[in-house]
Design brief:
Elements: H1 2-9, E1 18-21, H2 28-40, E2 44-45, E3 63-65, H3 74-79, E4 83-85, H4 87-96, E5 117-120, H5 125-137, E6 141-142, E7 152-154, H6 161-168, E8 174-176, H7 178-187, E9 254-257, H8 265-277, E10 281-282, E11 291-293, H9 300-307, E12 311-313, H10 315-324, E13 351-355, H11 359-372, E14 375-376, E15 386-389, H12 395-403, E16 406-408, H13 410-419, H14 450-457, H15 470-474, H16 531-537, H17 545-555, H18 579-582, E17 604-606, E18 617-619, E19 625-629, H19 639-651, E20 654-656, E21 665-667, H20 675-680, E22 686-688, H21 691-699, H22 713-719, H23 723-733, E23 742-746, H24 753-762, E24 766-770, E25 802-806, H25 814-826, E26 830-834, H26 836-845, H27 858-864
Parallel strand pairs: 1-2, 1-3, 3-4, 5-6, 5-7, 7-8, 9-10, 9-11, 11-12, 13-14, 13-15, 15-16, 19-20, 19-21, 21-22, 23-24, 23-25, 25-26
Antiparallel strand pairs: 17-18
Helix pairs in contact: 5-7, 5-17, 11-13
Length: 865
């Protein structure tokens, strides 16, 4: 009775809307129910032709219903701005009596929160807004009240009233800490909730034991190698039967086998027979082919097939199709797409090992390393350049820290291979390891970057005729599955915003807010061709734009969603707590972090509008200066004032940042020995006093920096160098003061090892943790540049053969010192054990200098006791 009422209330809901249902993964009973519900709501169903496996009348369709994005016409549908939704969208829309936002029901793998319905408990307002905005932007849903549909309840402990309610009602929602969502954003994947689950989350346990292994990711099964060793298994008798339920892989398809496959005539005959058994055929002409199989991304056939948007895969992909009898996108899995013959530029000089991956995961990563052109080593040695780890709780990771080897997660390798360029290790996403999490669980989720392939391997020399078909359709149909996973892509680059002058047109569906461009720079899940459709997509509207804008702002916040416990951070929007009551009077309040990227782009801020009102867009002033502030007490204990002041300064073009690697102005009440101040000197910033901020906030404009220079006479007299001269040297050095230096530092040094590691790396050097294990460390002399080409104050006093160890004057370190001297002797170098003052002077003065007062010795320590 309830279902009948529901259908009656939804009559006409899908009027003038056409649907196609992809049957794979949907049970027969559910398929019939979906068809009945659509017809009852006056929708039109265009049958899916299972015999062909493709959607012939794609331009006539408004919605495609599918459990996954892995069907042949998926990217073509996106180019035509057709909604692709899961079956649950139909059910939810009918139940609600209105069409739901299709984005939150998209099968796009980039929207990794699309199965998540979040309800927040009693957590701070800023964190709640960040979580809600991020979940919506990543394809999830928000429930304002606790209900049976909620999958995740975000709370701090079980004393939360909503947790108590969930327990009393026996709801199935997982109760997790906010840290879970924060870590999902940091790695750009949905990770396991296990370590974050209340009441006793593992991440808060002091002794939680070893991190448990994870099951093999289903995305790499039968996709671990581009060169299958065994012959393909014959398909089961039912795979190519006449049932309308299956996508027939080869039915009506012409397959061309590339010359670079180097397979025997016998194997070629076996493969040909299997293709014909599936209703296809083998051709020798690339023009007639629908599928092209090759080993490498080269040759006229590869280029022609790719430009014509044919399916291009390798032998591993072909075997997968034969074995499973179900079509899959060759770009979906790394090892199913042809390799670059010479690997990725720059990778040939790397030696890479892996840690904490087993079974198929290990085989997959080993083959991926080899495909990049790097050398894979089964054992980890000191001459390795990179260690790819599933987590950092391993002996290899400890050794890597001692040897100064880069420890990264597999996302760095996958993204580099997907884009065919080395991704920067400065991106924290590649060096972050969520606590108590085995990242092997998200292995294989990265897809080949379609735009990168086109740009590098088959630049488009002509526009396919079918792209022209998109012109008329694009103004009538909105996009739904718009992947915007900024965490997955390179966060250092930012694509231009949608054209602010684009005209809005009426269209079928619910479109009220600006649609971000699907072609984000470096984005996965894109297809070459159909440029007419893509250009128009830049100006389309989309329901989720306000949530996306909020999410992108929060993604740039230092420390993520949670920071300093669970307090609101300095980067939170000024009006975060007042948004509900001030929505009708939105002015120019904006987050200070909206434009933390390239200042040459004109960013736009999208405020959350009042209900049923069009979103308002204001152009944000471009960044004039990036300022790092150290030891200024004006905002201590007053986060609200801090947020407001920083927002005002951002309006003036002054961005307050904690990133000491990119600083124009360095502000402090006086010269200080903080990590941020010392490391920022390497940027050659103008050093100003806090009066600069006083003036800017009082007069609402930025003063000339030269009128507020920091006065440091007492400091300079005591230090033996002038700050203005140090800045001049820093400008000459260009972050290369300690280039080619490896400086060792004891792990218990005052101030923390990471402090000196950051300072040294900011000046181009490498810092290695010293624990006294001489067999696990290598050292080499520095080559002295005497040509004068790059010689400035930074190198004139470099002795080249001196090995430095930063330590504290503590007798507990005597054993480490002795071992360090052994290391230096072993490599024919002079050991020099120094206090922290040495590195502080060198990096602040910006030139290499030595004074015996900095040297530590056992005799001096004993004498001072």
């Amino acid at each position: 009775m309830e279902d009948t009422t529901m259908l009656e209330g939804s009559q006409g809901l899908f009027q003038e809307l056409s649907f196609t249902i992809i049957p794979n993964g949907i049970s027969e009973e559910r398929l019939k129910k979906i068809e009945t519900d659509i017809v009852a709501a006056n929708g039109t169903i265009i049958p899916f032709d299972a015999a062909k496996g493709r959607i012939e009348r794609l331009e006539e369709i408004v919605y495609i219903v599918s459990e996954t994005s892995d069907f042949p016409d998926y990217y073509r549908a996106l180019d035509l701005l057709i909604h692709v939704v899961k079956p649950s969208w139909v059910e939810s829309s009918i139940q609600a009596g209105k069409t739901k936002n299709p984005r939150t029901y998209s099968p796009d793998p980039a929207l990794f929160m699309n199965e998540v319905v979040v309800c927040c408990g009693a957590i701070p307002t800023g964190d709640k807004e960040a979580i809600e905005g991020g979940v919506l932007a990543m394809g999830g849903q928000i429930a304002p009240v606790l209900s049976k549909t909620v999958t995740h309840l975000i709370a701090l402990d079980l004393d939360d009233p909503r947790c108590q309610l969930a327990i009393s009602k026996r709801l199935q929602a997982m109760m997790v800490l906010p840290h879970w969502f924060d870590d999902c954003l940091k790695v750009g994947r949905r990770i396991s909730e296990r370590p974050y689950t209340l009441p006793d989350p593992e991440i808060l346990l002091v002794e939680a034991g070893a991190i448990p292994p994870t099951r093999t990711s289903p995305l790499i099964r039968d996709a671990t190698t581009p060169d299958p060793i065994n012959d393909p298994l014959p398909p089961t008798p039912t795979v190519f039967s006449e049932t309308p339920r299956a996508i027939k892989t080869f039915a009506g398809k012409q397959v061309k086998l590339g010359e670079d496959l180097n397979i025997s005539s016998k194997l070629r005959g076996i493969i040909t027979g299997m293709i014909k058994a599936g209703g296809g055929d083998v051709t020798s002409k690339i023009v007639d082919a629908d599928i092209y199989i090759c080993n490498y991304r080269e040759g006229s056939d590869y280029i022609r097939a790719s430009q014509d948007e044919k399916d291009v895969g390798n032998l591993g992909w072909l075997y997968y199709l034969i074995t499973h009898g179900v079509w899959t996108n060759p770009m979906r899995r790394m090892m199913h797409y042809p390799r670059p013959r010479d690997g990725i530029p720059g990778f040939n000089k790397y030696k890479i090992s892996i840690s904490s991956y087993t079974g198929e995961a290990r085989v997959y990563l080993e083959n991926l390393v080899k495909a990049t052109g790097a050398e894979f080593t089964k054992t980890f040695k000191q001459d390795n350049t990179h260690l790819i780890a599933a987590h950092k709780n391993s002996e290899k990771c400890e050794a890597a820290a001692e040897w100064g080897v880069n420890v990264v997660n597999h996302l760095w390798l996958e993204d580099s291979y997907a884009k065919c360029k080395e991704m920067p290790l400065t991106d924290n996403r590649y060096t972050y390891f969520p606590p108590r999490t085995n990242l092997g669980e998200v292995l294989g989720q990265t897809e080949i970057d379609r735009d990168a392939m086109e740009k590098i391997f088959f630049p488009e020399s002509h526009q396919p005729a079918k792209a022209i078909k998109a012109v008329s359709k694009v103004d009538a149909v909105p996009a739904s599955s718009v992947p915007i996973n900024k965490a997955v892509v390179d966060p250092v680059t930012r694509s231009p915003p949608a054209a602010d002058k684009a005209k809005r047109t009426k269209s079928t569906g619910n479109m009220q807010t600006p649609l971000p461009p699907r072609h984000l720079d470096g984005k996965e899940n894109q297809t070459p061709g159909s440029r007419g459709a893509k250009d128009r997509a830049l100006s389309k509207l989309h329901d989720a734009a306000p949530d996306i804008a909020r999410f992108e702002k929060e993604m740039k916040r230092k420390g993520g969603v949670i920071h300093g416990g669970r307090r609101r951070t300095e980067d939170e929007t000024e009006d975060g707590s007042k948004k509900a009551k001030d929505r009708d009077s939105i002015t120019s309040k904006r987050s200070i972090d909206e434009v933390e990227e390239d200042e040459d782009t004109e960013d736009e801020a999208t405020e959350v509008p009042a209900k049923n009102k069009r979103a308002k867009k204001d152009k944000l002033t471009s960044i004039k200066f990036r300022m790092l502030v150290s030891k200024d007490e004006r905002w201590t204990g007053n986060q609200e004032k801090e947020s407001k002041d920083k927002a005002r300064l951002r309006e003036l073009g002054l961005f307050i940042t904690d990133d000491f690697k990119k600083v124009d102005l360095l502000c402090a009440p006086h010269p200080v020995r903080t990590k941020k101040f010392i490391a920022a000197v390497a940027c050659a910033p103008t050093i100003v006093s806090t009066s600069y901020l006083d003036y800017a906030l009082k007069n609402n404009k930025l003063p000339p920096a030269e009128k507020h220079l920091l006065k440091a006479r007492d400091f300079e007299e005591g230090s033996g160098f002038r700050l203005v001269e140090a800045i001049e040297r820093a400008e000459q050095n260009k972050h290369r003061l300690l280039k080619e230096w490896t400086i060792f530092c004891t792990q218990n040094v005052g101030g923390g090892f990471d402090t000196y590691k950051d300072i040294i790396e900011a000046n181009g050097g490498k810092c290695a943790k010293w624990t006294g294990k001489t067999t696990a460390i290598t050292a080499s002399k520095r080559s002295l540049n005497t040509s004068g080409a790059e010689v400035s104050q930074n190198q004139e006093e470099d002795e080249g053969d001196v090995l430095y160890l930063i330590s504290d004057p503590d007798k507990k370190e005597f054993a480490n010192w002795a071992k360090f001297r052994e290391l230096a002797k072993k490599h024919d170098m002079i050991p020099r054990i120094v206090s922290k003052d040495w590195i502080v002077f060198v990096t602040m003065a910006q030139y290499v200098h030595w004074d015996p007062k900095w040297e530590l010795s056992e005799e001096a320590v004993k004498a001072s006791m």
